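Pair request: fold both.
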Amino acid sequence: MRQVLHQLKGYKRDTFLCIGLTALEVVMEILLPLITALIIDKGLEGSNLPAVYRYGILMVAMAFLSLVFGALAGKFAASAASGLSANLREAIYANIQTFSFSNLDKFSVPGLVTRMTTDITNVQNAFMMIIRVAVRAPLNLIFSFAMCLMISARLSMMFLIAVAFLVIVLGAIMAATMRIFDRVFKKYDDLNASVQENVSAIRVVKAFVREGYENSKFARASAGLYKMFVKAEGLLAFNNPAMMIAIYFCVISVSWFGAQFIVGGSLTTGNLTSLFSYIMSLLMSLMMLSMVVVMITMSLASVRRIGEVLSETPDLQNPAHPVETVADGSIDFNHVNFSYKHGSGKNALSDIDLHIASGQTIGVIGGTGSGKSSLVNLICRLYDVDSGSVYVGGRDVREYDMEALRNQVSVVLQKNTLFSGTILENLRWGNPEATDQECVEACKAACADEFIDRLPDGYHTRIERGGANVSGGQKQRLCIARALLKKPKVLILDDSTSAVDTATDAKIRSAFAREIPGTTKIIIAQRISSVEHADRILVLDNGRVDAFDTHENLLKTNAIYQEIYESQVKGGGDFDQPA
């Protein structure tokens, strides 16, 4: 809760103004029944018309002030609540940007989306209600009860009986609904996950004619959420009957005993009228408080979920005095052990001892789950090793400023991502200052110019979200060109040419040798043809180095490499290359 309220920042003034104006509004409303009693007792019953006018004008003035105070309080409440939600979204988004891959692994994408939308909206609504209603209701309750005691202490006891009844009933309802609402917001994650998965993979869904299955899956998630909300709201529906029982009890008991007091001369008609107004105000204050408790109950689950993201600290931190420049592209793995869950005993990489000279081209090959992607993730420090060390340019990667390191170690990951915008705008993710000519040269090296020149708007063609309007191979080539614009010391291609034909793959490798001879190139691939011309080839098996040698030597000495080679050659070669 402290973390959430800390995001008020520049909106504290609006919050306190809202509270102050709400208090003034309550004071005006509390005094109105007292003025009504004076009009009845001193004006009407005393046949004193000037007193009626005098108190009537005072009542109108107080009602007008109450209206003004209420309107201003509402304005400042809206400003403070909206400001809080805006700051929360910015704080969550900014914190997510600092997360390492291991931090991101703790949260699902739908879960983060729900936190930044549904959860923050719940907190915004609850905060607005708290600074308006949670201030108004207690003040109204306290002042109204004080006025009741001033008018008739004995009749005020009826209210205490009603309060005791309401506290028991509403307390039982709140205890039951709190547990339900805690589960409701977790269901939102499942619903969002179903939507995101279906929309992002809609082509696959249609290709396999699975619309019916996806509809039923979404319907189940939606029905589960519906049932939980019905259950919670069904319990909350008992608020109104309980409140009406308390109100009728107070009205009947005050009417009965009040009539006897009037006949006995211990209470005036004006006082009884005021007493009715104050008792109704008291009970409505309790009703408002019960609504506040409901809203707080709903928002507390959201506050906890938001707090989880805000309190998450990045696993990877810059050192106190970071190194800002990478000397060259040399890479050294010194007996590295790495696991995605530290201390689990399940290593993704075990005892990796590897030394690569600057400017070399290294191929990496191995079966699924052999640790290829894990290996290259350590070079640009997307994760930290469990033991051992990784050196780039002669320095431990943990000594570098992470931004400086990643600017010099360019990675094209397995999952290529393009963003909404033109081709040029996507390319300049690699270098915001790149000229048009530099972008063209990078695209030529990545063989992307071949299809860009055929597009009606060329480099100004708009890319849809996620690169939906380009093919997989075109997307890969654009991502390679984007990486080349960084002019890195180390270039890592993590199976990034899998969707291009072997002829284009060969052209790209030839361009690398010609355009960036001093850059260390690490090429992860499934095809032998993509790595056979590398200076050396690393064969990984179950997270360990099985061999590290040239193509020719591996064919003679390494069983795994021989098996991969034989399966591709005897199977007819690559899918787009004749046997």
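--- second member of the pair ---
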Amino acid sequence: MAIRICSQKEIITFWLETDHSLYQMQVDGYGLLHHLWYGEKTDCEMQYLLDYPDVGFSGNLYEAENQRTYSLDTRPQEYACAGVGDYRIPAVSAVHADGSNALDLRYVNHTIRKGKYRISGLPAMYAEDDAAETLEIRLKDTASDVEVTLKDGVLPALDMITRCAEIHNQGETDVILTRAASFCLDIPYGSSWEWMHFHGRHTMERQVERMPLLHGIQESSSRRGASSHQQNPTLLLCQPDCTETSGVCIGAALVYSGSFQTQVELDQLGQVRVVMGIHPDLFRWTLHAGETFATPEAMLSYSGTGMETLSHNFHRAMRDHICRGKYQHIERPVLINNWEATYFDFNAEKILHIAEEAARLGVDMLVLDDGWFGKRNSDVSGLGDWVVNEKKLQGGLGSLVDKIRAMGMRFGIWFEPEMVSEDSDLYRTHPEWAIQIPGRQPNRGRYQLLLDMTNPDVVEYLYDAMCKILRCADISYVKWDMNRSICDWYTSTLPAARQGEMAHRYMLGLYSLLERLTSEFPDVLFEGCSGGGGRFDAGMLYYCPQIWCSDDTDAYERTKIQYGTSFFYPISAVGSHVSIVPNHQTGRVTPLESRAVTAMAGSFGYELDLNHLSETEKEEVRKQIAQFKAFGSLIHNGKYYRLTNPMTDKAAIWSFVTQDASEVLVQGMQFRTEPNMVRYVVRLRGLSSEKQYRLEGTEQVYSGAALMYGGVLLPRSWGDYTPVSMHFVEA
């Protein structure tokens, strides 16, 4: 059993066990639910570590009378409440009918059942009933009819624990939630900790930053209406000696695509609290009598053997239990996208010219990007008018698709469903559908406004419009873009007192549309995008098994972006393409082969006009496509290893290893070449020490032990940004 209970009088201890970890909580004699332990399996109740002094100005529970060492301000909580003497970050806060904002949650009962819980209207991990168990702990406020049910999903083989909370108003008057986090993790046992988060900006996402915790509150968050380029809804806590291959670390990922907040507090006693969930600045939810609010899900995993193990846990969980549908595991098509080749300046003839050469070189799919619809000749008009522009595409979309299909290629298309241009038929007909505050001029981003996804009429319009396009031709792929942050929060669908619900209801509307479309078109590959990686999160992966990683296609910069992405997200989820040089974002020139090996660490494709390449380059493209198809299963389903750190090292090198360790592909880039340069040595990981491995293309054979402990010499470099691609197979 993954979940077991030990009871002694009023004390109840919950043991949540995975293959390599133990999560332990305990109901004490006062009915408070405390966190005890998350870490290695100990076969012991860990409450003996909870030894606290009388801390001045940390008040005491009323029932504890003169027991001054018992304070909610110092004790580890499982779901910390506001207003009851715990002055640290709360997980939940509510305003009652009398204006008070306290919650004092006490244990009522619990249930255990086979299988993994689901959350209505929200993405969440899923599993077969024999692969997971669910623990539900019901808590009730001492002075009101507010109840909270904490739901924990335990997936032992994945070393994964999930958490969400359901907040119920069982009373007769409204309760207003002002904070409803997905999880709260207190680490009571003394140890120094560092944290890693993944910051950035547009075209520079998920840059890795690791630093010691400071006393007080550290925060990683987004108030942009999306998980954002600037921060990612993931967090890694690690002890100072933690490396890729050794040491203790804990990871958390929020299965949510909207505004979020992750706060980490190092308290007065050196204890750590992590609270993650919907950003409270954009959240105020009215719970009427009898209503329930469900938080998004958080995923948790622990590793005692370094960050590599933690990443593998999240990769398996997201690839196998978040992603869904036809393209979850099968080979992804090699595609060519016309955006950087043409931008808005194209017609059917130009697209077919690009497609002809792509088909000749072995590309599987052409994706028609922005500009095919409405009056869309620049980025200031047309959004919302999802009708084919037949001045550009004479004969219509069906004719173009048929011609591309006749070349042996599939066809994909770009949408930006959540947006509207003021210069559009949709806006002229329904200006009230755009998000804007009455009496104020709206904030534009990319000269566009947002549609109100809380409005059922908007969702229905988008569903009908997109279905019409997807049914009018043989379309195999949709790129779902979102090119601005959200502000001007106001919706005509809610009264003034409930405007604080809009940000979350926007996400519920978006998810409902995605669910309908992905169900209606199960053979279509949906790729998420938000100006590249502005909404790269587990919530979007539930609907889109791959996400465009970044609008920065510079191969050198991409090594850093993809490095940060890899700590939580599987390689199969990473959209990555070869683009032209000088690169359109940086002006940097990198070799074609280097651009290719970088793009192969994802779903491979091209973002250029292949007609402009030399014959030598075209032949190289043909070989690259063949190589990716040969290695596609290994890349997407094998174990991924970060062999260097491109943020600090002289090279970005990674590898993919089959599950049985019979094959390894080493790829990457050496950044600089120096005179009389000593060759770079990289130690491989994940191989079998006893096996022998032959380097493909040579007769050289190495033992697994030699490759892991001695390493392999990278090829001699010539020029900057030299590619690395080495394939070893069991001899």
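Observation on the second member. The chain is about 20% helix and 30% strand.
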